[in-house]
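Data card: per-record layout.
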Amino acid sequence: MGNTITLRVKNKDKFDRLLALIHDLDYVEILKKDQGDKDKKVSSDDFFALAGIWKNRNISARELREKAWPKTK
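The structure for this 73-residue chain is written out next.
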């Protein structure tokens, strides 16, 4: 078992460069890659991974239902 470090990179371009550098290091293993909420991919098989997907969204349950099931005339 080795040591672990967690980093937060504020700039996406620099994040990509840092990730490329880390990939070149044969003694470093990437355990988890998170590029922010936009790029995060969640398996539909993992129900609990979807928890909080509406966090920080300014939408009500009524608005969400109206968009999901529009009324047809």
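Known properties of this structure: The first helix runs from residue 12 to 24. Residues 12-68 form one domain.

See the next section for split statistics.
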